[in-house]
Amino acid sequence: MSQPRPTEAQFRFAAKALYWVRQFFTDEEPKIEKSSLIDQRGIRGPQEKEAFILSQKARQIRLQEVKQQLDALKIKASKLEQKIQSDTEQFQILNSEIQKVKEAEAFMTQKHERALRKQKLEETKAAQSQCRQAIQKLDEERNHIFQIQAVQQHELAM
User: Fold this and answer.
1) What secondary structure, in 3-state letters, does 40-104 show?
2) Are 49 and 38 in contact (CB under 8 A)?
3) Most Cβ neighbours (<10 Å): which of 3, 53, 75, 94?
């Protein structure tokens, strides 16, 4: 007994399926690597939460989770803004101290007093550098949080 010959439509669907299966094992995305599916959203696999597409209840649960995450991120962003403001004020104070040290050093004539002022200047510059690094790190964290917020807001919009 011979099997029935596939129709033209079945043949096209089979060719498409074989094409997609081949794609999973090439270096192009999407691909399968070490038993994990990798696509433009990243690595997929058991580490992902189950995705609910059509369930209204599941969508409501996910919406609530995203809202809670968004609220937590807003609080964190607010705290970071306050920290940045505080560090900026300290940075300005340190800058004014540096200027004061420079002006005072110009009027000093004794070697011992100049050496003392120079040491204070170096300490203030070191503190200023630390503040700059802290401000830069906080800016990077804030930008990261804004990116996460944008992604979550985009998810909420869907």
Assistant:
1) CCEEECCCCCCCCCCCHHHHHHHHHHHHHHHHHHHHHHHHHHHHHHHHHHHHHHHHHHHHHHHHH
2) no
3) 94
